[in-house]
Amino acid sequence: MLKSTDKPIAEAYRLALLDLDGVVYRGKNPVEHAAASIRAAERLGMTIEYTTNNSSRFQRVVADQLRGFDLDVEPHQVITSSVVAARMVARHVPAGAKVLVLGAEHLREEVVSQGLTLADGPEDDPVAVIQGWYPQMTWQEMANVSFAVERGAMYLVTNRDLTIPRELGIAPGCGSMIQAVINATGVEPVASAGKPESAMYDEARLLAAGDGNEPVAKELCLAIGDRLDTDIEAGTRGGYDALAVLTGVTNPRELMLAPAHLRPTYIVKDLRGLLEVQPAVTRNGDGVWTCGNAKATLDKTAGTLTVSDATSLDALRAACDAMWDFADNGGDPEAIALPEFAL
């Protein structure tokens, strides 16, 4: 069920683990109200770490883009899957060990920064392989990953996103390329740095704290994103509260039908929600749920869910709790006619 707060979210949590695409920007363009809300949240004491499955863009490049939105961002605040992957492999292999890298220069730099040695190919007998994604990757590079994995190298990947949006449409992502290596070798990666694994959030906590300092407690960290199957799932897997924004992929229907592992702790329209107290959802009677002045009514006999105001975010919150409770008690969510929200 959704949680409520007695203070603005930016005061209730100390560290925001903030997704980028669909939350802060869409490609080159800023998301409405995002930058101003982030600046206001920081003034209230919230620390911001930006987390992204992208393994090809340098931290400094992302930070420069965010500064262009008038945000005060240092490169170390941008946690990419390359940063996480390099730190992960460094924990599993000896210092100076040879690692074969398939990925952009950012990933290669991160591996070297962890005191590891770049292997030229499978002939170098690398102890580990990290597979990432970049537009110029070749068949030979993927074959080299397969050869190294077949020789026994530990297999790690930056993320398992099956698709990636490009200028001309949807293209195969890192996960599709990984599947080709799995098909060739029969070997599954031992770990993935990207969401929906929680490793990115765990590493972000450590990096935000700095060497030798105690990281912010999990209950004071908030995962924020627009995708239930990456950002929110990574939060639930890792034991973090999670906030879903409606400025990207996630839509009301997806939220109402979300299984337990994809459910956020809070739902907001955009990042202005960081500055707001989150209202409680209460059950008033059989099938009736209220949030603020809005109401959702689930009629199991008729197979319908109705709301008092389809333009109200509070109505969506009430509707989500109604549907989640129904599903958790053995109901079939797909059998319910859901309201069409216009938020």
From TrEMBL:
<dbReference type="InterPro" id="IPR023214">
    <property type="entry name" value="HAD_sf"/>
</dbReference>
<protein>
    <submittedName>
        <fullName>HAD-IIA family hydrolase</fullName>
    </submittedName>
</protein>
<keyword id="KW-0378">Hydrolase</keyword>
<dbReference type="Pfam" id="PF13242">
    <property type="entry name" value="Hydrolase_like"/>
</dbReference>
<dbReference type="Pfam" id="PF13344">
    <property type="entry name" value="Hydrolase_6"/>
</dbReference>
<dbReference type="InterPro" id="IPR006357">
    <property type="entry name" value="HAD-SF_hydro_IIA"/>
</dbReference>
<dbReference type="InterPro" id="IPR036412">
    <property type="entry name" value="HAD-like_sf"/>
</dbReference>
<dbReference type="GO" id="GO:0016787">
    <property type="term" value="F:hydrolase activity"/>
</dbReference>
